[in-house]
Amino acid sequence: MAVSGFEGFEKRLELHFFGDDNDPTVTTMGLRLLDFESLENVLRVVQCTVVSAVGNHFFDAYVLSESSLFVYPTKIIIKTCGTTQLLKSIRPLIHLAKNLGLTICGCRYTRGTFIFPKSQPFPHINFKQEVIYIEENLPNNLCFRKASVMPSKNPSYSWHVFSSASDNGAHFSDGEFTVEVCMTELDRLTGIGNINPRALICDFVFDPCGYSMNGVDGDRYSTIHVTPEDGFSYASFEYVGSVYDDQDDIVETLKKAVQVFKPATVSVSTTSHRREVWTRVAHAMEPLGLKCRSFAMDEFPTAGTVVFQTFTAARRK
Ligand SMILES: C[S@@+](CC[C@H](N)C(=O)[O-])C[C@H]1O[C@@H](n2cnc3c(N)ncnc32)[C@H](O)[C@@H]1O
């Protein structure tokens, strides 16, 4: 743990793979065939461990000592906080997937602005260094590459995005979107279980404080992580949705997640091929007394449009 305080802001890596479509084990199991020991070895390099796990017909969800890991047949998402070295997982994961007959076709890395940037080890010293490291570890078939720092009015809340894909890397299914919510200066913490009552919950309470949770609902995950310490309190909520869902559900889910923590500042990043998602975010925040202070939008080849919005409580400008 960093001497200065615990770094709540997560680093998030999403890797997509493809294999022989005529091989049913690839489409039904794929990366889920990786044995637990191999996953543990990758996590050891990143410097975290599995603390609890659950799986269903579609994917496996792991709560980590530092956030979460989701393994789908052709997609893997790792989210880690603290001083973990997440990008060091890229090379071993590509190697393990190759042994299963899977080739990487998409990579997306995102993170907010660290509260304690000086505590971050290589290759997370700064975004430029992170991008160099990612590029060095990706194969040449991932040719559409783009890195961007999406600004906000407050420099403490920039959003860092790197995305790359091969020319067959149309890795987001039509209508699917990801919402990443980062909250600081928390006021309370009650009612997490009500955010999605349908989800199977797998969680972990840390000693002396801290809480992590994965929700599993069909083929979709949601995840919440909480660092409650005074002075650097932080919580994140992330979920995958579809534009074909009831649009009011998107608003209600976001409202419930933010109401649990009553944060002073909320930043929300949405990644989607559709416009309607980010407009819903503002509709969810305004009734909670949160005003949009900044808005940034950028296009990423094959990953889609990333919209980054920051909101602060109307009482604290
Ligand atoms: C639950 S994890 C989640 C991190 C997540 N990114 C966040 O900050 O919301 C971090 C919290 O657990 C606490 N914690 C206690 N033991 C820990 C451990 N062994 N590893 C990581 N965090 C631990 C930290 O002090 C912090 O409050």
What would your notes on this structure say?
The protein contains 6 helices and 16 strands. It is of the alpha+beta class and 317 residues long. The chain has one domain (11-313): S-adenosylmethionine decarboxylase (4-Layer Sandwich), CATH 3.60.90.10. The strands form 2 sheets. It has an 8-stranded antiparallel β-sheet. Helix 5 (247-261) crosses helix 6. The mean pLDDT is 92. It binds S-adenosylmethionine (SAM). S-adenosylmethionine binds next to strand 11, strand 12 and strand 13.
Beginning-to-end CA distance, first to last residue: 32 Å
Radius of gyration, CA atoms, in whole angstroms: 18 Å
> What name is given to the CATH topology?
S-adenosylmethionine decarboxylase
Name the bound molecules.
S-adenosylmethionine
Low-confidence stretches: none
Q: Report the major sheet.
A: 8 strands, antiparallel
Q: Determine the number of helices (DSSP H or I, runs of at least 4 residues).
A: 6
Order of SSEs: EHHEEEEHEHEEEEEEEHEHEE
Beta-strand percentage range: 35-45%
Helix content: 10-25%
Q: What's the CATH class, please? A: Alpha Beta
**Rounded mean pLDDT score:** 92
Enzyme class: lyase
GO molecular function: adenosylmethionine decarboxylase activity
EC number: 4.1.1.50
Pathway: Amine and polyamine biosynthesis; S-adenosylmethioninamine biosynthesis; S-adenosylmethioninamine from S-adenosyl-L-methionine: step 1/1
